[in-house]
Each structure stands twice: as structure tokens, then as C-alpha cells.
Amino acid sequence: MNITWKIAQLDHQIIDGLVITAHYRVDAVDGDYSVGIYGTVGFERGDTFTAYEALTESQVVAWVKEKLDVEAMEASLAAQIDEKKNPIISIGMPWVMRCSGVDGEGRNFRKPLEVK
What we know:
elongated, single chain, 36% strand
């Protein structure tokens, strides 16, 4: 499984460039299965300061991770992927038409569900 952390947006003060909020995205992909988390983290002025123009995505991702339980989040994503691979819940209604197969030209066809 591949997990990627990205910064979607930064909110910063115009006067001094202080980043006050980071909007982040964490995506997990395993073959054909993917899930993601979107969230925000707030910041206050600390002992050190990096000019807004000098920030890198990897630096801000590190700040975000410092404030979160990364292990729990990544475990949750892995569990969601596993649930997609091995579903325990199905959706639908037994009285609604469902796909019954594929015709000779590769098109799905439907026929009414037989009720007995």
C-alpha cells in the first residue's frame, strides 16, 4: 500500500506570512483500491519562524504530522482499504432490477429479479 501526504492549502497572515492553518490530504492506494482523509491543523507562532516564501511542502507536512497521530491515521486507511477488498456489507434492494450478465458485445444487460 502506498500512502501519500500532501498539503492542499495554507492559510497565512498577510502582514508577516505566519501560517495559521494547513489543509492536508492523506491518500492510500493499494492496486485498484484507494481511500483518503482530508483535514486541517492550526498553528501558533513558535520559537522559530520560516518565511512564507521559503516554505516547502515537505516542511509543512512534517509540521502537520507532529500534531497528529500518524500511526493511527495510516492504520485507519489500511483498514478502510482492507474493507473495500473484503466487503462485509452490500448495497441494493432485492426488488430492483440488477445486472444479470454481459451480452455478446460486452454490454451489461438487465432482467427483472425473479421473485418466488
